[in-house]
Amino acid sequence: LRTTTTAMAMAMDEADDGGGSFSVLVEKKTWKVVERTEWSPAMDLLAVLTQDGQLTLHRLNWQKLWTAAFEASAVDICWKPNGKAIAVGHVNGNVSILDVENGDLLKTLRLHQAPVVRLRWTWLMGKQGVLPTEEYVDRLHDVLGEPIVPLPNQQSGGGIHDSNRKGKRDGAVWPDPEETMNVLCSCDRDGHVALSAFGVVKIAHWCIDDRNSTEERKLGEILKIELAKNGTKLVTVYGVKDPTECGKEHIRAELMDLHILNGKMKEIHQVALFSARVGMLMEYVAQSVEAARKSWKDLMDSFEKKIKKQLVVCLQDDGSMNSTYEELLSLLACGAPSRAMEQFLLVMPGESGLKRIAKQAEAACADVHAILAKRAYPNLRMVLYLLEDLLGLSRCINRIDVLGVDEHCVLKALDLVTLLLLQVQRVVDAIETVQGQYQLFFKWLNSVILMHAEDRGERKVGEEAEAVSLMEMDRIVQFLGLQYNEDCISPHLSRSHCRHVRWPIPYPDWRDSHLSKKVRALLHLDFSDDRYSLDVPLAHLFAYVEESLGVVFAGPLDCLSRSFKRSASLPLGETIHPALPCVDVQNHADGFLIALSEPQFCLRLIHLTGSSTVPALGARLSMGASSELVDLMFYKDSVLALLFNGKGASESKLVLLDCEEVDLHDWEDSRIQALPWSCRQRVFPHLSSQPLAVMGTRGVGCLVFGGKRVVLLDMEEDEGGEEEEVEE
Fold first, then answer.
1. Sheet hosting strand 688-695, strand order edge to edge
2. pTM above 0.85?
3. Sequence-ordered alpha helix ranges (H) in 235-376
4. Where does residue 109 rank: exposed (0-12), middle (13-18), buried (19+ CB within 10 A)?
5. What is the pLDDT of residue 77?
6. N or C of the chain: less Cβ packing under 10 Å?
């Protein structure tokens, strides 16, 4: 459908003061209030977060690609620098990583206890601009292939053993060794900041603390967080509530020194790579074990309901004092069923019912066998291979005394993973044995039914009872004594037989005495006795492996967190709550460029240099009393997009300000300069609202009018005099 430009776009042309700056691409009305918009840095895609907490992805022509809904409401969003994933912060403290192609959930990070209010995802560049990665050669793919992804239909009778789907190498969950180091910064409402390498592995955390004030203050709104591209600094802009001045928040900027992140970027890159891959593989193993548990539980529930309980009912109705085990042994010994057993075989499940249960048992055993043998076992082999490489890296890191990867903890994790592999193989062998026993058990019951029908002259044509040999009778006795009375497979798969350990487990503090005891206990845990190790349930051993891996990767987390230092905390101004300022931060030269609105219609620009002699430069710009600043956002290097609403008139104005034209001086100087209105601008015949979204790499912008009317702009082209056609 081709239509001419909308009436609103033509009205914009009439009201334009800047000679047709910024071409209107699309104007659409939404049914939900828009709260957050974010352009992709790599493609012409717009992520829209609405008031109900749903995330929608649109093309430049407003074609909707997908919509994602969440159990916990979404608060903030940001794009991965390569545009392949979106991070979503939630009110429950989790961060979700979504696939851009279809909106599927790739990973959930449990990083915070309070709502995640700010997210920022940044590439890290080395001294030469790009992080060299030739030190580590990825041999995993060549040796063992791709990870085996658990299927969504891993249920009983689903034919899992017929599938061999491989895991795709997505950068959001399976980082490539050649991928440039990138860090996801997240901050919650309580001021806790976390850094996650590749958006997957938590590598550092700390809490915002106003140490320059001797008075008791309360943390206010977290406004912005930004990481320097060279990984040396991180700035957080936040508000501090002063109890002595009710209703006011003092805006501060905290500068963190992260030089170790830049100096040891190669080592951190490699350790984070190992942690991400091991964590993903352990997730796959956990999902496979859970799928096997559900499939086996369905079989046991059906067997309990249709065989054991039905036989108990028949014995009670007949007044027999025998147990089901004694009744079955009696039938096996003499071959003639009692009245209760005859009632059970012919009436309760019957011949057709026994065949259905036999097929279910065969399918469940085959599925569980395939899940453990073809999915869990290969992924555990990859974990073992990665830990062997990590062991060599830990020895190298210990020699240069950095990152805190403990060689002894890695060795213990290797031992536990090896034992877990042996245990998985043992359970697989046991399932094969049990599968044969179930087949023989149902074959015997079916032969009893056929022989009873032959005695009564009710045998069907072509049906003959198969005699049970003495060897088969011995196996049936073993089945009745072991599997029938007490299931030997469920303890290996059931979560109730071990304490629940989630992956990733919470990263503990290495200075905590409780953790020190835990590390010593793990180091002295002895599974060298084969007889003892084979008696340990698979789920219990899996919990030990997860805990040992958590201890291995907790060392670098604490080492990096303690190495980060606060270098400066600067007051930027004050505001009256809830009229919080509009703030944005951009990497600039060797520091950051901060733009924020102030009362009395002022715009403040601050250049944080990080220098000890001149920590910051700044300027105040007057915006005039006739306009109200609605939102601001950096468009390109040193180019700031400002969105104004006119006072007394239903119009708004979008202005691009080149910050290089502003004279920066002492940041504490209160002199006010005039805003240079000679830059590109455009007037719109409607009042605008937050949010404003612009992206210099794509040359596009997004405005919202009244919360429900969205206008997409081409920021690099000016509209001509002719009508423009828009394809919808």
1. 23-29, 709-714, 700-705, 688-695
2. no
3. 259-263, 265-303, 309-318, 324-334, 339-346, 350-371
4. buried
5. 93
6. N
